[in-house]
Amino acid sequence: MNDRRNSVFDGVLGDNTVLSALMVISPVIMCGDSLKNAEALSYAFTSITILSVLISSLVPKKLPYALKIVIYALISSLIYIPVKVATHEFYRDAIERIGIYFPLLAVNSLIVFQTEAKFFRMKRARMFFSLIFYVLGFDIVMLLTGVVRELLAYGTINGRIVDADVLISGLSQPFGGFIFLGLMCGLYRWIRAKIPDISKAGREQDASGK
Fold first, then answer.
1. Is 17 within a domain?
2. Residues 72/57, Cβ–Cβ less than 8 Å
3. Is residue 144 part of a domain?
4. 8-17, 103-112, 120-129, 139-148: lowest mean pLDDT where?
5. What CA–CA distance (Å, rounded) separates 167 from 135?
6. Where are the alpha helices (DSSP H) in 10-123?
7. Is the pLDDT of residue 195 over 80?
8. pLDDT 10s digits, 66-102
9. Which of these, 9, 21, 11, 29, lies nearest to 179 by C-alpha position?
10. How many CA atoms within 13 Å lie on the side-chain side of 19?
11. How many domains does the chain have?
């Protein structure tokens, strides 16, 4: 039961996709300067990743590794098309700002690497719940980054002006996003070290090279 609990929640704290594995950090740094951008990226990342991994799990395991990776990339690329159309309808303004970082979500590390290294080694039900929390781990970081950077850089939340006494305009820039993400990584590792079970799981992940 303990192993199952760890495998399910690792994606949020024990082995967070962004803060621990440092995967998919470019969209967070470059585009996570507003809540609207963060919502658009979270929606796209969640849709593309979950659908791609679930469909890719049906690919025969006996195929050569290199061929399977190509197939996974093709599957995610096909899923990207309708997701892009839907995102454009829901987040019309944000999609222009995100630019090239949107299609990069179709080849994120959870699809092209973690599928074989982690998810496809699990039973299907366990894989599904583990995948959900890995995606949730990204979404939490993305949304939190968008809220804080928009508030401190522009004095707004979701485009609405709030009473902010101090503005740090640099947080709207990529270098500000990089610094903010570094601070979040430090806080994340401090929290992980304070929780014994999570700290142990994190050290095991680090030792195995993820």
1. no
2. no
3. yes
4. 8-17
5. 31
6. 25-31, 35-56, 65-90, 92-98, 109-112, 114-117
7. no
8. 899 899 999 999 999 999 999 888 888 787 778 888 8
9. 29
10. 31
11. 1
